[in-house]
Amino acid sequence: MIRQLLRVSVFLLGIFLMAMGVAVSIRADLGTSPIASFPTVLSFGTSLSVGVYMILLNIVFIALQMLILRRKFPVFQLIQLPVSIVFGLFIDLSMYLTQWLVPGNYIEQWVWTAVSVILVAFGVYFEMQPRISYLPGNGLVFTIYTKLQNIPYGTIKTTFDTTLVVVSVVTSLLLMGQLNGVREGTVFAAITVGIVIRGISAIHKRWGGAKSS
To answer: Would the keyword Membrane turn up in this protein's UniProt record (predicted)?
Structure first.
């Protein structure tokens, strides 16, 4: 029981760190990560929050997984629904907690964008460790990969992220006539989050190996 509680705690910590990373990137105002770009743009152009739109988008991702896999969809993965709700609530909580964050210049914006990347990377790493579930965006990418195994996972992930960014750019221009929520920081996050995750993994393995010896 204690071990299960620890796994859930680590998983929730990862979700919270990702949510905080999204909030910090929004406050930095250089663009969010691809997965958060569409909800962010919609929140800027309407009255609903980023967290609410993230929940709705993730519900769509879950529905697409079920549509693709049909009877092969693991019933257990419906756990993605409460996970999505928690993630959305964490984002709105993080937005509240970061109200004070108002960068004074372009350099500060980049500093906070880098901080957001680090937070998201740690969040993803912690989320993966317990192997409980995953956020629906990652679940959809993996689902498409299982159906199209002749296409590398990285290619599918890149295509997925690029599609989200393009949709976000078009939506931002239509709703507000300018780019809000999708900027150079979005490209930076898309490139660097995976690199930071690999770095965290390497350090963890090295530290863990040293500790065990």
So the answer is: yes
Q: Rounded CA gap, 75 and 146, in Å?
A: 17
- DSSP state, 77? G
The model's pTM is 0.89
Q: What are phi and psi of 130, to 5 degrees?
A: -75, -15
Q: What angle do CA 107, 109, 110 make, to 5 degrees?
A: 65
Angle at 20 between CA 19 and CA 21, to 5 degrees: 90
Backbone angles phi, psi at 132, to 5 degrees: -90, -55
The token pair at 97 is: 């907690």
**Calpha distance 159→5 (Å, rounded):** 36
How much is the mean pLDDT over the chain?
90
What percent of the chain is helix, strand and coil (3-state, nearest 5)?
80, 0, 20
Per residue in 35-48, pLDDT tens? 899 999 999 989 89
Compute CA 59 distance to the chain's CA centroid, rounded to the nearest angstrom.
14
DSSP code at position 78:
G
**Could you tell me the two tokens for 164?**
């989200």
Q: 193 or 59: which carries more pLDDT confidence?
A: 59
114-123: pLDDT as tens digits: 999 999 999 9
User: Cα separation of 197 and 18, whole Å?
Assistant: 12
